[in-house]
Amino acid sequence: MRILGMDIGTKRIGIAMSDELLITAQALRTLERSTPEKDMEKINELIAAYSVREIVIGLPLHMNGTETPKTREVKEFAEFLKAHSTGGLPVTMWDERLTSVQAEKILLEADTSRRRRRAVIDNVAAQLMLQSYLDRKGAQ
Questions:
Q1: How wide is the angle at C-alpha 65 spanned by C-alphas 135 and 16, nearest 5°?
Q2: Quick check: 55 and 81 in contact, CB under 8 A?
Q3: Helix (H) or strand (E) holding 45
């Protein structure tokens, strides 16, 4: 059983997956957004293929911890996931502050081209967010 991490954007959804021991997170892929139903179909395929038991979604917050305009949209998507995921999986919201900044820095240090960075930044951000969640969960 694995945990699926998601960085929800307007145009793309970054996807990361835990290992089976719930120790590490790996960037998996980026889904191009379509309709909520088509997005859910793709997500349910991943849930089945990887035996996912939980979904963790990055919660966009301001640096001071208050909600951003994007927060409400992500919360609504999380509710949609809860209602439509295969098996009615639990959905956890997790603070994603600075994950996109960290992902950009990692990709710049790896000398990744601008075009390639744009294509993978969402799933790298999802990986960082999910790894943070796994680290906290393992420390408890």
A1: 40
A2: yes
A3: helix 36-50
What per-residue string of b and e applies to 84-115 under the rule 16 or more CB within 10 Å gives b? ebeeebebebbebbebbebbeebbeeeebeee
Please check whether residue 2 is in contact with residue 51, taking contact to mean a CB–CB distance below 8 angstroms.
yes
Q: From edge to edge, which strands make up the β-sheet containing 2-8?
A: 25-32, 12-18, 2-8, 52-59, 91-95
Q: How is domain 2-139 classified at the architecture level of CATH?
A: 2-Layer Sandwich (3.30)
Distance of CA 98 to the CA centre of its chain: 14
H or E segment and range at residue 92: strand 91-95
pLDDT tens per residue, range 11-21 = 999 999 999 99
The answer to whether residues 35 and 42 touch, using CB atoms and an 8 Å cutoff, is no
> What does the pLDDT look like over 40-63, one tens digit per residue?
999 999 999 999 999 999 998 777
Question: 3-state DSSP call for residue 47?
Answer: helix
pTM above 0.85, yes or no: no
Work out whether strand 91-95 and strand 12-18 pair parallel, antiparallel, or are unpaired: unpaired
